[in-house]
Amino acid sequence: MEVKSMNYKLDPQESVQTSSPRQTKQPHSHGRRLIFHVILIGALAFAGIPLWRAYQDQVAAEQAYQEVKAGQEQAVEENREVFQATQQMKDPAYLEDVARRDYYYTKPGEIIFELGSSHQEDTKHP
After folding, report:
1. In the structure, what pLDDT confidence band is assigned to residue 15 with cuts at 50, 70 and 90?
2. 19 DSSP 8-state letter
3. Taking the model in full, what pTM does it have?
4. Where does the record place the region Disordered (predicted)?
5. Residue 38 is part of which domain span?
């Protein structure tokens, strides 16, 4: 068996090779890595646009919902007031009071004396 001796000369201008294949492709992989990162950032931005628009639509829908809810609560309150007014119209004592006060209706045999305007009526009609 013959053993050959290898004589290595190290030249400072020659590149030293290592056993790792990654280090040999270092100049090329840096450009590829940069392109990959640019493409990745572009894809994330492109995917983020619909998400941002969906978020804005959700905020607008929530605001519209709150406005409609406030309007519905106001309508319910108005409905409650109208219902109370109609219930009062069914009360004979209330109707009698309104007829006497606003329309000067009297019962048979009653005489109405007007003594002048009250302080409240003076403030209503300047």
Report:
1. low
2. S
3. 0.43
4. 1-30
5. 32-103
